[in-house]
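Fill in residues.
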């Protein structure tokens, strides 16, 4: 078992888990992949940090289906697309654990990306009104743009 997996097995309020949140979520040390794998691990109670991509993708797809139901079928799941689903998983983490251990501020782009994931049928104008922001600003959000690429 590697060091990250050992830390992941500790209670959510432990220093080991806080270390993972700081490194993988707050500072985004391993980018979207590390962030997404952490949230999927915690939310499913499984270790997704050192697992092969195909198993991780399937677990992430199942979790997305649990969270957003039928809307999850509107996305193509692959190693490239799953890492852009972190706003959905972080939102679920915040819902379950009241933002425990997160010191990163939820941004306008994060909220727009979460809405895009949860409501793929919404157009950009509707999401911009809900966030609130402009469509031009939405199109400057890299996560939001990448998520839209994986809609089926």
């Amino acid at each position: 078992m590697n060091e990250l997996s050992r830390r992941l097995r500790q209670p959510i309020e432990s220093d080991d888990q806080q270390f993972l949140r700081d490194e993988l979520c707050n500072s985004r040390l391993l980018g979207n992949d590390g962030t997404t794998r952490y949230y999927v691990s915690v939310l499913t109670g499984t270790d997704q940090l050192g697992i092969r991509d195909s198993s991780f993708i399937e677990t992430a797809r199942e979790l997305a289906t649990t969270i957003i139901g039928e809307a999850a079928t509107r996305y193509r799941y692959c190693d490239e697309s799953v890492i852009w689903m972190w706003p959905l998983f972080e939102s679920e983490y915040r819902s379950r654990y009241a933002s425990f251990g997160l010191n990163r501020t939820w941004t306008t782009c994060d909220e727009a990306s979460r809405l895009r994931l949860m409501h793929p049928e919404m157009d950009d104008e509707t999401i911009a009104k809900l966030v609130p922001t402009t469509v031009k600003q939405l199109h400057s959000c890299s996560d939001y743009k990448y998520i839209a690429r994986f809609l089926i």
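Residues 5 and 61 are 21 Å apart (CA to CA).
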